[in-house]
Amino acid sequence: MQLPIQSYLADLYQQLAAMDDGQLASYIPELTRANPDWFGLCIVTMDGYAYTAGDAAQTFTIQSVSKPFVYAQALADQGIETVMRRVGVEPSGDAFNSISLDPHTGAPRNPMINAGAIASTSLVAGDTPEHQWQRLHTALSAFAGRDLDLDAAVYQSESDTGFRNRAIAWMLRNFDITEGDPMPSLENYFRQCSLLVDCRDLAFMAATLANGGVHPLTQTRCMPAEHVERVLSVMATCGMYDYAGSWLYEVGMPAKSGVGGGILAVLPGRFGIGVFSPRLDDKGNSVRGIAACKQIARDFGLNIFNRSSLPSLTVRRIYTAAESPSRRQTGLHSVAHLREYAARIKTLCLQGEIGVDSAEYVIRQLQQLAPDTDSFILDLHLVANLSHGAARLLHAARHELHARGIALVLSRIHGRKSIEDTLRCNGADATQGFLRFEGNDLAVQWCENRLLDGIPDEEEVECCFSDSGFFAGIDASDMKQVCSLMQTRQFAPGEVIIEAGQPSDGEIFFIERGRVNVLAPLPGGGHQFVATLGPGMNFGELVLLGQRTRSAMVHAESAVRCRMLEMHALNHLATELPELKIAILHNLSLDLADKLKQATRMISVLAN
Questions:
Q1: Contact between 222 and 29 (Cβ < 8 Å)
Q2: Residue 312 per-residue DSSP state
Q3: Which DSSP string do the residues of 553-579 spell out, in sequence order?
Q4: I need a surface site. Which of 149, 229, 522, 564 has the fewest CB within 10 A?
Q5: Both ends of the chain: CA-CA distance in Å?
């Protein structure tokens, strides 16, 4: 099964790959060696699942995308007060290489421009420049989840041509923002920008920030939790340089770009996104990267101002039809078949706000369960809202499953117009059709019918009443005498066979042909459906336990033929064959115990 987000990224790659706007960065000569057609995409979830498309494995230098992570390390090493005295958090509105310093203190406006980033690097702990570099390299590698290599050629190119950055470093020293000789820390700044990453690394770095500073796969805490919101706040307001305001307005995620062509974007608690394409606009941001992030945000409604919940909380519980079968039991043969295969029907009870990240999590649950599943039911009773992007993903998953012979149906959305409309207008097929049921029991019945496909319809099959478990263990000679006591009764469709609340005539019914419905009376009037019974099954047997008033109504769903046994006749026979009634009562106790166990399992499932 190809997951919908994977298909989406592949389509998005094809859609944007032809864009040829923008130019390669040339102020660092080595960057002009990049292939302008490189283009990679990656989305990483909070449990570390990575979706990729295009040149996702193509390495490039991280450049300014390193800045938030070095700022995070400076905060961890020096504390908030020290860092805030030396690096501000106000948007500069200027280009990334602007000399934008506070006129009174000389502090850089923010850590995302070069001046602030150079100051941040100088604040990273280290007794020597080499120790400081090891700390920087270790920190950035931890965010990526692997040991990052240095591109020596790019580093040398940056160092050889970094005259403007050297001027910035000396200005910082002039205002006592940095201490001692600023050149060693500046060289480490050049090195940090020259680390090789791919867009999968960027997405994992973004996902680590989205996950509160913990890498989703390695589970390594890469930064103190209390600094995550500060880093994200600065990224949101300053991460895209003088395009930051438009980015936040149009895309709505904290992000950071670099002149190597990388962009990472963070949706806290939900996703990390990495994009790579080396053609840049006049502000130094990847042209395809911005277009891709805009499209993803628009299609999936990814915005930090949207409501969201932890995706893993979306699935409240999962259970099978073996634990909670339908109340439709059409006959002994079908019951036996369903008991064997009912676990292939699975219900996922969803809850809360379902956005793209939650839908993605649900779909991966479906993927994991699919190999031993015939039908899925999504119970949406506790879903408060369904986004359009989530609806599109669910429809895509439904079609993927259908291609594999697996059904996906929805339950308990009747009358909830907002969810029904969202599902309908985002249908992936021409008819926009999808199966939905008012209740889980009806949904399970439909799925059970799929399992029974190819098995003869037991409405058309006759069953000898002696096959019933009611008479298990009784020998043929005794059964012959029981048969002699029975009468044959036939009922038309819709005819009431037993009326609830009426005195019992002491009759037990054994269905030979057709189906009956059992309904329990409700206190306020009306009836609650209990079960449908078919050939080989019986009803009215509680008279054996002394029941004198019928507790349920039974009516014929179709034309029904029954064999009827009256209690007084059975009691008369029991005087001659006492072991007969003992065997019948034993069988009845086993049947009631089995029903009680099943009811307990169902209550347990529904109560969780």
A1: no
A2: G
A3: EEEESS-EEEEEEEHHHHHHHHHH-HH
A4: 522
A5: 30
Entry field: residues in the chain: 608
Residue 243 annotated as catalytic = no
The whole-angstrom separation of Cα 335 and Cα 294 is 53
Tokens of 595: 């029903």
For position 93, what pLDDT does the model report?
61
Residue whose entry in the numeric block shows the structure tokens 């390193």: 66
* pLDDT for 63 beyond 50: yes
Q: Specify the pTM.
A: 0.73
**pLDDT per residue over 364-410, tens digit each?**
999 999 999 999 999 999 888 898 989 999 999 999 999 999 999 99
**Which pair of tokens denotes residue 419?**
């969810």
Domains, the chain, ordered by start: 4-300 (3.40.710.10), 311-451 (3.30.750.24), 465-607 (2.60.120.10)
Instruction: Identify the residue whose tokens are 């048969």.
Output: 483
Active site residue 27: no
> What's the pLDDT tens digit per position in 482-514?
888 889 999 999 999 999 888 888 898 988 888
| 145 CB burial (10 A radius; 0-12, 13-18, 19+) | buried
Q: Which residues lie closer than 8 Å to 388 by C-beta, 6 or more apart?
A: 301, 422, 425, 426
**Given 241, 243, 319, 361, which residue is catalytic?**
241
Q: Which of 228, 259, 461, 560 is catalytic?
A: 259
Active site residue 259: yes
